[in-house]
Specification:
By secondary structure, the chain is mainly alpha-helical. It has helices at residues 4-19, 26-40, 43-61, 77-126, 132-139, 152-160, 171-194, 219-250, and strands spanning 146-147, 196-197, 203-205. α2 runs antiparallel to α4 (77-126), α5 crosses α8 and α7 (171-194) packs antiparallel against α8 (219-250).
């Protein structure tokens, strides 16, 4: 549901629009302008304009029309006031429709956000920030051995979070999640190809048995260890960034 801050901001925004109506609507502006012109234009000037219009019609149509003599020397307040009132009523109706549209969109957005909040909660259960996998990505140097349980959450994420049921409805969140998933999948594949159990397990190492226990590694081993460490750091940063982005967008 909406939190107090969102409700307060929305009410203030709507209140400003009602107290200070937007007259930029072309129809409203046109009608109100005509009404104001009728009220403010002196009778003499209006009579001159009317005479000019009649003379123009007579000249172009070849027929003779006369202007009915004005009954009063005061402005036509009824017509002018009516036009202004109609213009303002049109503006109010227009603002009301915009308000109802905004409310509908806000309700729809909240419903979509609630779906994503539930999915984000599931994501945190599968791949939380204090998991062994995040600790492995953040702190481990793959020149050292590691426990097989260190990749449990990573494997779960890679195996199960690439389905339609695990897609976020928010396009931005889903895009960042896919980037995270792709990078984690790349890391898991590289780690699986470049490591093996020591003895019968459960400890694994990325150092070939011929060089394990020494510091005299060939260049290709150093290159592979550097690649794994860089991939792990990148996965950690993407995971952290995705969580922060999700919390900001979903406000949770």
């Amino acid at each position: 549901m909406f939190n107090k801050i969102e409700v307060k901001e929305f009410l203030i925004k709507v209140g400003k629009r009602w107290l200070f109506p937007d007259l930029s609507n072309k129809i409203t502006w046109f009608v109100v302008s005509i009404g104001g012109t009728i009220l403010l234009t002196p009778v003499l000037l209006k009579q001159l304009i009317y005479n000019w219009l009649v003379n123009t019609i007579n000249l172009n149509a070849g027929q003779y029309f006369t202007l009915v003599e004005l009954q009063s020397d005061s402005p036509d307040y009824t017509i002018g006031t009516t036009l202004i009132v109609l213009g303002l009523l049109h503006n109010i109706a227009n603002r009301y429709l915009l308000y109802k549209t905004a409310v509908t969109k806000l309700i729809e957005l909240e419903a979509l956000n609630e779906v994503d909040r539930l999915l984000f909660k599931e994501f945190l259960e599968d791949f939380q920030s204090d998991s062994l996998s995040i600790e492995l990505l953040r702190d481990h140097d793959f020149g050292n051995s590691y426990h097989k349980n260190g990749t449990t959450q990573l494997d779960l994420f890679v195996d199960t979070w690439n389905t339609a049921e695990k897609e976020f409805l928010d396009v931005t969140l889903e895009t960042h999640k896919k980037v995270l998933w792709s990078k984690c999948r790349e890391f898991v594949c590289e780690l699986a190809c470049g490591s093996h159990f020591i003895g019968s397990g459960p400890i694994l190492t990325c150092i070939p048995d011929a060089y394990r226990g020494t510091d005299n590694w060939p260049q290709h081993v150093d290159d592979r260890l550097e690649m794994l460490n860089n991939l792990a750091t990148e996965c950690y940063e993407l995971h952290r960034g995705f969580i922060l982005l999700s919390r900001r967008k979903l406000k949770c």
